[in-house]
Every structure is written in structure tokens, then in C-alpha cells.
Design brief:
mainly alpha; 3 helices
């Protein structure tokens, strides 16, 4: 199966924009909730993702970020 290179070129700006939204939400949550309980971080991150329009992030990814933010309050966002 071959993918047309122009499809990649069309998709990348959309992917970049989505990743920027996720990054802003994670950064905001690290600053506001770093080191707090997993439940508090998970809720704050879910709200931040919704605020950014990135609520379709898979739950497993949200969980992974919530654990890291809770356990590593000084983590640098990606």
C-alpha cells in the first residue's frame, strides 16, 4: 500500500496543531497540579484538554500524563 506524499503534507499541519493543544494542556496542568494526587491531576488534565479542544486524546495517554505529573512535579513538558 502506497501513500500519496501530498496526503502527508496535508495532514501534518493538523497533527502539529493537535499536539500543540496537548502540550499546552499538559504544561498548564504541570504548573497548576504537579505533585498532587493522581485523581486531582487526572481531572485537571481532562479539563485542560477540553479547554484546548483536545478532549479526544486516548484515555491511556491521559492516564500516562496524569501519573507522570503526579509523581514528577518538576517534569518538563515534552
Amino acid at each position: 500500500m502506497t501513500t500519496d506524499p501530498s496526503e502527508y503534507d496535508k495532514a501534518m499541519p493538523i497533527v502539529r496543531a493537535h499536539l500543540a493543544k496537548v502540550k499546552r494542556a499538559v504544561s498548564r496542568t504541570v504548573i497548576s497540579h504537579g505533585g498532587q494526587s493522581y485523581a486531582a491531576v487526572r481531572q485537571a488534565l481532562a479539563e485542560a484538554l477540553r479547554d484546548e479542544g483536545a478532549q479526544e486524546v486516548p484515555p491511556q495517554v491521559v492516564d500516562m500524563f496524569a501519573v507522570r505529573i503526579s509523581e514528577e512535579p518538576n517534569m518538563l513538558p515534552f
